[in-house]
Amino acid sequence: MPRRSFLQLAAASLLAGSTSRAQAEPPPHIVFFLTDDLGYGDLGFNGGQFAPTPNIDRFAAEGTRLEQFYVAAPICSPSRAGATTGQCPGRWRITSFLQTRAGNRACEQADYLDPAAPSLARTLRASGYATGHFGKWHLGGGRDVQDAPKFAAYGFDEHVSTYESPEPHPDITSGDWIWSPDDKVKRWDRTRFFVDQALDFLGRHRDQPCYVNIWPDDVHTPWVPSSERLTEYPDGPEEQRKFAAVLDEYDRQFGRFLAGLERLGLADNTLVIFTSDNGPMPTFGGRRTGGLRGSKLSLYEGGIRMPTAIRWPGHVPAGRIDRESIVSTLDLFPTLCGLAGAPLPAVEFDGEDRGSVLRGEASARTKPLFWEYGRNDESFAYPGGQGRSPNVAVREGRWKYLVQADGSRGELYDLQRNPGERVERSAEEPDLVARLRRLALDWRASLPGVEGLK
Fold it and tell me: Which residue, 182, 294, 317, 406, has fewest beta-carbon neighbours within 10 Å?
């Protein structure tokens, strides 16, 4: 055989062997840990000073931190809808937190996420994953909405959830409200409860790839710590003491979850995503946002940029901080399906596959990110003051432009130079403003309105 032909054959054999080994690797377990109302500046790795968070900080050091990670909305229900569907929540008429039927109409939104929407859990389940949801849902159910679809409609095999769901668990819903002192599982033990349920599920399905949502309702108000934990924070205003004690307990339970993965022998092949659904409220004078402007309910960075870390040993680089790549929860659907080898449904995603970023390759987005919050002044009256942003925003590269849906109050910021959004640049970049303004307003006009709502 000629030497050149031999080398080509050898190279082909090596490539085939490499491909075969890659294909033989089992798909990862995937755990999506979505904190409730955690601020960008709450955690130790971002300079948080309210309570130590050693377990979350260690987890972040063992994986990759994404410094420009965004959620789909600055409030829970639309944020969760974006993560679930990979599409902007306005496409499915989810504009604010889901509440009573009358309140939903006032917010110009549906009563629940349409089960016809894409579902990450359903897609992974079709590829052989066992799927479980443990924690807050808030995509339908509760209050006077009694016809919300069950968890199975979105592709979940098992579930344990709160009052704001179609199937609340009796141990945490003794009353007809978000929490009660009569609950079997007390307010300060709810994260422990969800962690235990998730670990039990993973233990029973350790030989099958699992997709698991762990969506606690910490660190959302009301802050009700145990007396034991509160005594560790004797100084300062009462609400800050309570918050510190709840954050402390939350970190302890996250540590228990990580220890549980190790005990089950699953840590090495489990991809864990840790982030928050939206910014904090209250912010304690901006300290909880780490210097970012705004808060929950705001399209400024403090409402939509989240503290985020991802760990998958041997696949996601350890000890890495990616300050360049712009990533969104909208990207999770195509990204995780790509990593799991799961075929995507034939729909138009607003997110994109960012698997290369998780593997350590910082890269630019191929399309901009859009947000909306504030359909009217009556149901969207908060926050007030300097934290109240225009109600439409677009991020393209280093630039972010905010504008009212009627075209007024345009604001342009260079987030590379000014992530705190303190220096407005419209006067210096008129051509850029004109283009981004048209992008933002055309996108907002493309979203469905109240027509067709039941």
Answer: 182
Nearest to 279 by CA among 373, 370, 351: 373
Cis amide bond preceding 282, omega within 30 = yes
Q: Taken in order 327, 330, 335, 340, is the CA torsion positive or negative?
A: positive
Map out the domains of the chain as residue ranges: 25-358, 390-446
CA distance 454 to 447: 17
Q: Is the pTM of this model over 0.85?
A: yes
> Is CATH 3.40.190.10 correct for 390-446?
no
CA angle, corner 119, sides to 114 and 123, nearest 5?
145
> Residue 108 has which token pair?
């110009």
Q: Please report, to the nearest 10 degrees, the dihedral formed by the alpha carbons of residues 68, 219, 248, 135 taken in order.
A: -100
Let me know: does 440 contact 370? Beta carbons within 8 Å: yes
pLDDT, one tens digit per residue, over 397-441 is 999 999 999 999 999 999 999 999 999 999 999 999 999 999 999
Q: Where does 25-358 sit in CATH, by number?
A: 3.40.720.10
Phi, psi at residue 369, to the nearest 5°?
-105, 145
Residue 22 is predicted with a pLDDT of: 43
- How many residues can be counted in the chain? 454
